[in-house]
């Protein structure tokens, strides 16, 4: 099959994403499509397309989401407006930095990380600076 005739439909992409999230290997995902359609010839893509989609789209998005998460959290905070807690956990790393997390609740009742900090000390001035 020529490359220009191969494509992954939106439903195929969604299934690939769900299977990747569930830990199902690309080859098993492809084999499930083959079994569902009755053979390789019935599909308009090959196993390599599934692997490429995972590499280019699914894994790339997960890496980018780490950096974007605080932007989404900030938007959620602006929309919902309430911070539920600020928690400091003592000496969680070898550098003796205090990790503080701002956690809110979204409209689904799920905890959402709004932000976090690493502080060298727990003086009142440090907390004032952080909350601003």
Please explain how this structure is put together.
By secondary structure, the chain is an alpha+beta fold. Helix content is 50%, strand content 17%. β1 (85-89) and β2 (98-105) form a beta hairpin. α1 crosses α3 (47-80) and α2 (26-37) crosses α3. It is elongated, with a radius of gyration of 22 Å.
In short:
The protein has 132 residues and is of the alpha+beta class. 50% of the residues lie in helices and 17% in strands. Helix 2 packs across helix 3.
Tell me the number of strands. 3
Could you state the order of secondary-structure elements as H and E? HHHEEEH
Q: Major sheet: order of its strands? A: 1-2-3
Kindly estimate the percentage of residues that lie in beta strands according to DSSP.
15-25%
Uncertain residue segments? 62-68
Shape: elongated
Report the mean per-residue pLDDT as an integer.
76
Please tell me how large the radius of gyration is.
22 Å
Binned, the helix content reads: 40-55%
Number of domains: 2
Assembly state (oligomeric): single chain
Query: Number of helical runs?
Result: 4
In terms of topology, how is this protein built?
Elements: H1 10-21, H2 26-37, H3 47-80, E1 85-89, E2 98-105, E3 111-119, H4 124-131
Antiparallel strand pairs: 1-2, 2-3
Protein name: MULE transposase domain-containing protein
Pfam family, one: MULE
InterPro entries: MULE_transposase_dom
